DUF4145 domain-containing protein (Actinoplanes flavus), 158 residues
Amino acid sequence: MKNFIGGFNDRGEPVEITFARMQAAAADWIITPSTPQGPAQLLKAARDMFCLGLYSYELIACSASWSITAVEAALKLRLDAGSKPFQKLVTLAIEQELIDAYLGEVLDAGRQIRNNFVHEGRQPVWTLGMAGSAIGTSFKVVAQLYPAATPDEHIPEP
């Protein structure tokens, strides 16, 4: 399997993907210390599944779905919104200026893809690059909802 993660050697030839390269590709997906335990665990599992997708391609779509579920969980907690559906959470987050309208559209597209996968069993067929972008966006959204504390703030251990 060769694609964006393996990169190219100095002769311009594709480099094989390895588990270490998959981990390196996911290394920028940060979970802030202020992220609540539930969404943080979902994000960690999404990162792990993405890397394990090298061995079982189906885990790539599972990883993307899990990362979108982490965004939903993070929004519910941040908005103290209980059991409101994801679509309503996105609307509330826009209204409260936690996210902008463009990001709201991106999240709604992710929600629809996740729902097609989970509720209808239609697994998306993505390249690692496409999945990596979607998963990375989920990590960024959760980090935006729960930014890292400034040095003078104390974050209790989970």
In short: Residues 19-145 form one domain. The chain has one domain: 19-145. The radius of gyration is 17 Å. Helices lie at 19-26, 37-52, 58-79, 86-95, 101-120, 128-145.
